[in-house]
Amino acid sequence: MADCTSKHDLLAQAELWLDEGLPVTMATIVRIFGSSSQPLAARMIMTEGNRFVGAVSGGCVETDVYETAMIVQRSGRPLMLHYKHVENPLIEIGLNCEGKIDVVVEPLDRSLLGQLTLPAPHVNVTLCSPDQPAAPDLLHAQVFPDGNTIPAQPDTIVQDALRVLKQDYPVTVTYPDGRVALFEPVVPPPTLLIFGGDQAAVPLVRFAKILGFRTIVSDARPAFATPEKHPDADQVIAAWPQDVIAQIGADERTYIVSLNHEPRFEDALIRALAGKPVPYIGAIGKRIRRVERSERMASVGFDLGQVAEIHTPIGLDIGGKSPEEIALSIIAEIVAVRNRRPGGMLYTGDI
After folding, report:
1. CA distance 53 to 41
2. How many CB atoms lie within 10 A of CB 255?
């Protein structure tokens, strides 16, 4: 069996297999050159009987990885695999995409599982030597926000790990001696803070939760901010924006969506966000609202430069009108911003 479940689900499956007394092996992408169908740090968790979850490619090399995992299970020693693009996957083992990946395959026991499931915040570090496939000199470590490490690591590793801790995505660093470090930040989930309990808020919460966001819906109108109206939200708050921001906070991991058209609510939100380092603010409405907003704020002496860029109209242009389509458009734009992508179509017609 195979699927694309989350890292949490993969490790949960590993724990179930360990509880059954089964041997478990883990494969991890530790380095990528060029493109790859799976992201850095993608994993497969495997046990006997052709059972595995997760993936390290688009289905191109999983069989080979599994066969290697069975060798690792028998020997108890990790191995490093290298995969690149091949012209004919029927006669060669490799990738359909143009990139290359390095995959380390290792036994997964309870000790390592415990390290990988430590609570946030910290950075999981996988150190290895990809140029030594039969003996990749594998080491796992954890680096914590105060600079402490388990086990002790050189200052270079610690400083690189602390830089990665400030972001959402894993990073690979290759050092002059040929050693490679995969840094995986373990941080609390990002927060989607929705102002306005309108219809689109309901599917927006559902989409966001699938993507791993903590979700909060707020509205200064009590009738719009009830748990019955937003059953999937992690929290529902009936309060004005400034009170919500004071209670919840807003930082580099807080994404703001305003679904309320009324200027009195929107302007209160903007003032509450002054100086807050949020990565995204989106406000529903037509393009003319940007001009109207600028004029309103200027009339009271408020500098919009104090807040992040406000995306109006909110979302990507997918032509949707229903609450579900609007929510899809919004969450797609947020994902694009998180991944530092423009959000355009991948297909252009060019060869």
Report:
1. 14
2. 24
In a 3-state reduction of DSSP, which class is residue 34?
A: coil
Assigned token pair, 27: 């494969």
Q: Which residue segment(s) compose the domain that 47 sits in?
A: 1-110
Instruction: Tell me the CA distances in angstroms from 95 to 62, 92, 112, one per residue in order.
Output: 10, 9, 29
Q: Say how many domains are in the chain.
A: 3
Q: Has this prediction a pTM greater than 0.85?
A: no
Domain assignment present for 172: yes
| Burial degree of 182 (CB within 10 A; 0-12, 13-18, 19+) | buried
In this predicted model, what pLDDT tens digit does every residue of 286-337 receive, in sequence order?
999 899 999 999 999 999 999 999 999 999 999 989 999 999 999 999 999 9
* Other CB atoms within 10 Å distance of the CB of residue 44: 25
> What is d(CA 250, CA 274) in angstroms, rounded to the nearest whole number?
10
Do 309 and 211 have their domain in common? yes
Q: Which amino acid is at 306?
A: Q
Decide which of 138, 153, 187 is a domain's last residue: 187
Q: Establish if 222 belongs to a structural domain.
A: yes
Q: For residue 173, what is the enclosing H or E element?
A: strand 171-174
Look-up of token digits 């092996």: 25
State whether 178 and 211 are in the same domain. Answer: no
